[in-house]
UniProtKB/TrEMBL annotation:
This is LysR family transcriptional regulator. Belongs to the LysR transcriptional regulatory family. It comes from Inhella crocodyli. One of its GO terms (biological process) is positive regulation of gene expression. Keywords: DNA-binding, Transcription, Transcription regulation. InterPro entries: LysR_HTH_N, LysR_subst-bd, WH-like_DNA-bd_sf, WH_DNA-bd_sf.
């Protein structure tokens, strides 16, 4: 299929008729019909059944549409980029982060960045590390933040900051009565745990096991931000990454490093052969400085 065939086929599938497709493409109905007929001739099969003057997609057409719809989204993105380049708007930054880092680190850093680059634009998105890697490799993102190094040959991972896993203790809990490191064996409160497939959560549970400690737990959560919110409501104690801990409400919780320590790294992820633009390098600098300052403030 040629590109014009794809455009016309996609328009017909969207509009449901020849006339609707013609309106979407701003061409005449005979032109749509001609392109469709040529596409079917080249494919050697009908894409639509004609019943009482209406078009009904064949099963083959529906399967074809799934892939063509993906291609159409790429074409839309290409047209948008071309328009931006024509207008001289090359300073759009596309940033991705895991949900936890998106909520804890990006808001403050973006506030500083937006003031430094008032004429630049930024698209922010959150996703899991696996999907982030795919987006970087496909050129759908310029940079990303994750607590994991994906160890992918096409991805460059740089450590921006490091800190230990932290225990968030409700102020009325026995663990909040003492400052300093919190031995795992001293944890009496009910633990708000992470889901089993969370890498850091698994490290925490392995550390409990190595100490011969079996924590009491009934509630399991998927994100550290939710764990932090539940601790602030007094529901129990949780162990979170240090970057989430920096956003905890100190009027509601006490933050204590675990003993033994479980180190965590904040990784900047970029495509290996795609250098960051100036606006991206500035955001990285802001993120590193603000994160390191926030981690320093966690020290008792």
């Amino acid at each position: 299929m040629r590109l014009r065939h794809i455009e016309v086929f996609h328009a017909i599938m969207q509009a449901g008729s020849i006339s609707g497709a013609a309106q979407l493409l701003h061409i005449s109905q005979p032109a749509v019909t001609k392109v469709l007929q040529h596409a079917e001739l080249q494919l050697g099969m009908a894409l639509f059944d004609r019943v009482r003057g209406k078009l009904h997609p064949t099963p083959e057409a529906r399967r074809l549409f799934v892939e063509i719809d993906k291609l159409n989204r790429d074409l839309v993105a290409i047209r948008r980029l071309a328009a931006q380049l024509k207008a001289g708007d090359q300073d759009q930054l596309r940033v991705m982060a895991t949900p936890t880092l998106g909520a804890s680190l990006l808001p403050g850093a973006m506030t500083v960045w937006a003031k430094a680059f008032p004429d630049s634009r930024c698209v922010l998105a959150t996703n899991h590390t696996k999907e982030i890697v795919s987006a970087l490799l496909l050129g759908e993102a310029d940079m990303a933040l994750s607590l994991q190094d994906p160890h992918h040959p096409g991805i460059t991972a740089e450590v921006l900051a490091s800190g230990p896993m932290m225990a968030l203790c409700p102020l009325r809990s026995p663990e909040a009565r003492v400052e300093g490191d919190l031995p795992l064996a001293d944890i009496q409160s009910e633990l708000i745990a992470m889901v089993e497939d969370d890498p850091l959560g698994a490290q925490v549970m392995n550390a409990f096991g190595a100490q011969g400690v079996q924590p009491r737990t009934r509630i399991t959560v998927q994100t550290y931000q939710l764990a932090r919110a539940l601790v602030e409501s007094g529901l129990g104690l949780s162990v979170v990454d240090p970057f989430t801990a920096t956003s905890a409400d100190r009027q509601l919780v006490r933050v204590r490093p675990l003993k033994p320590s479980i180190p965590v790294h904040l990784h900047l992820l970029t495509a290996a052969k795609a250098p960051l633009p100036q606006v991206g390098r500035k955001l990285v600098k802001i993120l590193a400085e603000r994160t390191q300052a926030a981690l320093a403030a966690l020290d008792p």
